[in-house]
Design goal:
alpha+beta, elongated, 12 strands
């Protein structure tokens, strides 16, 4: 049995990742169970800067101090080995919950998502971007409370970056298009990952699932998000719309703030409207409300992005516009040979 700094006893291995091994330990001062993360020696030999990243994880955890984020208790160096002592969270993780109990009830999903959004709001407020948000990095406490962990590849804005420019870090399945493209990411990358997790909790599958990793990456860049309501009919429309906005391929039009996400999730849980296009304007004279009609250009959808202009079919488009404007027309069906532009 290894004793660290005459206080922390290492007992048994409980987990393993790319950077390190996690052990169950005991604080000999109070008998409390702890988790002890040890940086792999072979990883340090291959990547000397990994020690700085490992230290940064502990700094990030200490700064966050949030009930939905695993707390760091100490950082230790002993006999050339590097350790982080963290609070121990008994139970499994969100990945196991999704695998064993999918699809999860909508109310349960909302509770988990609200608490994760609150944790990320705290992190982003402190300019800490997780960059490896995924179900396996969300521990589920015995009371069902999610606890975010593994900030090993987090980006702390005030610190000098120790990663190579252009290097993509994280788990590809949860990386946004801009990260897969080798571009620098910010808090909107965490928003994308949280959107993928919400989709998985609702449907039990990845939104861009494929048989191979390269095919999945291609799907991220080229495929629209599947129709959530057809996969999960009991999903509130507002929740489906929120996920579509979180999974916008363009980070500039993706919903920009996890604080906004948390507010919308809470409104959905309370059964309130979260229509982002409605703006209730109070009239001082009669205290009534008006809701302006959104412009067609502003309406969000999950249609595939078009990369080239639409050439031709002006006559057909004019006819369709006339039909769509006619309140007597209930259904329009477009017929024609393949390749003539029906879908477009």
């Amino acid at each position: 049995m290894t004793m660290l700094h005459n206080r922390w006893k290492i007992e048994s291995q409980i987990g393993k990742g790319g950077m390190g091994v996690v052990f169950l330990g005991v604080d000999s001062h109070n008998g409390q169970a702890v988790a002890i993360k040890q940086l792999k020696r072979e990883v340090v030999k291959k990547q000397p800067d990994i020690v700085e990243r490992f230290t940064r994880e502990a700094e990030a955890l200490r700064a966050l101090n949030h009930p939905n984020i695993v707390k760091a208790l100490a950082t230790l160096d002993q006999d050339g080995e590097h350790y982080i002592v963290m609070e121990y969270v008994p139970g499994s993780d969100l990945a196991t919950l999704i695998r064993d109990q999918s699809p999860l009830p909508v109310q349960h999903i909302l509770k988990i998502a609200i608490e994760l959004a609150d944790a990320l709001t705290r992190a982003h407020y402190l300019k800490i971007v997780h960059r490896d948000l995924k179900p396996a990095n969300v521990l589920m406490a015995a009371d069902g409370t999610p606890r975010l962990t593994d900030f090993g590849v987090a980006y702390v804005a005030e610190k000098e970056r120790v990663t190579t420019v252009g290097l993509s870090l994280g788990t590809p399945d949860y990386m946004p298009p801009e990260a897969l493209d080798g571009k620098q990411t910010d808090q909107r990358g965490d928003i994308w990952a949280l959107g993928v997790m919400l989709f998985e909790m609702l449907t039990g599958r990845h939104p861009f699932a494929a048989d191979t990793l390269p095919s999945m990456v291609v799907n991220v860049f080229t495929k629209p998000v599947p129709d959530i309501e057809s996969l999960r009919p009991d999903c509130p429309v507002a929740l489906a719309d929120l996920i579509y906005r979180m999974l916008d391929k363009d980070p500039n039009t993706r919903i920009p703030s996890v604080r906004l996400i948390g507010a919308e999730l809470e409104a959905i849980m309370r059964g309130q409207s979260t229509d982002i296009f409605s703006a209730s304007i109070r009239r001082d004279d009669d205290r009534r409300f008006e809701t302006p009609t959104p412009s067609a250009a502003s309406v969000k959808n999950n249609l595939a992005a078009q990369t080239t202009p639409f050439v031709g079919r002006e006559n057909e488009l004019a006819q369709l516009e006339d039909l769509l404007d006619d309140p007597a027309v209930r259904l329009i069906t477009i017929l024609g040979p393949g390749g003539m532009g029906k879908t477009r």
